[in-house]
Amino acid sequence: MHRGNWFRVLLCLAVLGSTSGCIGAVDRADFEDQIRTRGGGLVSALPQAAIAALAQRINASDPDVNVILLTAPNSTQFRLVLNNQPAQVTNFLAGSDFAAREPTVRLRVRPPGLSRVMDDYSFTLGDLSAPRPVRVSSFDDLDGENFTISEVPGLSRIEDIVDTARTRSEIPDGQVTAIVVSRFGRDVRIVANVVSARSEVVAEFDRTGVFLRAQQV
């Protein structure tokens, strides 16, 4: 899909929940303001398109992943701090710049049939990157850390997750800058980062998108 067309699709999807439709002759700045309010373009269509492109690329109907990260254009403020943050999330975030000019999905993936191999992919404006090899330690428990996409039906509820995270954070001007999906112990969780100029809250959801808790960091 052409980059300009993909951007317009995301803009339309981001505002469909609060408008009667998407009108062609709308100022781009107004659109961008609306998608920032709804998480900077973090909508369900974004991970769905990324996963579809990934599944086709690696020939896997249900990809096996380690971490999924959705970042908004305002993700320069992103940081994830949890008391029980799993090692694979810490490793994924270490030493990387997740600043994004467009809504982006990043995925750490185990290719089919390769038990000790991991690759990183990014998906922006309809384009899936080439795989970037990940160094795997002998101590990494990939079988215990990884999960399949089908285990996370909450990925189809990103709009609800963004709205709930902003409400439960109780930050009046808070914005969702990033969403992380990974295994926390036995459970797969969806974690949303809500920030403002004066405060930051992490909101946790179960794998289906049901709200669990919010904590200030």
Question: How is this structure best described in words?
Answer:
This protein has 217 residues and is an alpha+beta fold. Helix content is 28%, strand content 28%. The chain contains 6 helices and 10 strands; from the N terminus they run H-H-H-E-H-E-E-E-E-H-E-H-E-E-E-E. Strands 1, 2, 3, 4, 5, 6, 7, 8, 9 and 10 form a 10-stranded antiparallel sheet that branches. Helix 1 packs across helix 2.
Summarize the structure.
With about 220 residues, the chain is α+β, with helices and mostly antiparallel strands. The protein has helices at about 5-15, 30-35, 45-60, 85-95, 140-145, 160-170; strands at about 65-70, 105-110, 120-125, 125-130, 130-135, 145-150, 175-185, 185-195, 200-205, 210-215. Helix 1 (about 5-15) packs across helix 2 (about 30-35).
Keywords:
28% strand, single chain, alpha+beta, 6 helices
Please give the structural blueprint.
Blueprint: H1 3-15, H2 28-37, H3 45-58, E1 64-71, H4 87-93, E2 104-110, E3 118-124, E4 127-128, E5 132-134, H5 142-145, E6 147-148, H6 158-169, E7 175-184, E8 187-195, E9 200-206, E10 211-216
Helix pairs in contact: 1-2
Please give the share of residues in helix. 25-40%
Q: Low-confidence parts lasting 5 or more residues at pLDDT below 50? A: 14-26
Secondary structural class: alpha+beta
Q: Gap between N and C termini, in Å?
A: 39 Å
Largest sheet: 10 strands, antiparallel
Tally of contiguous helical segments: 6
Radius of gyration: 17 Å
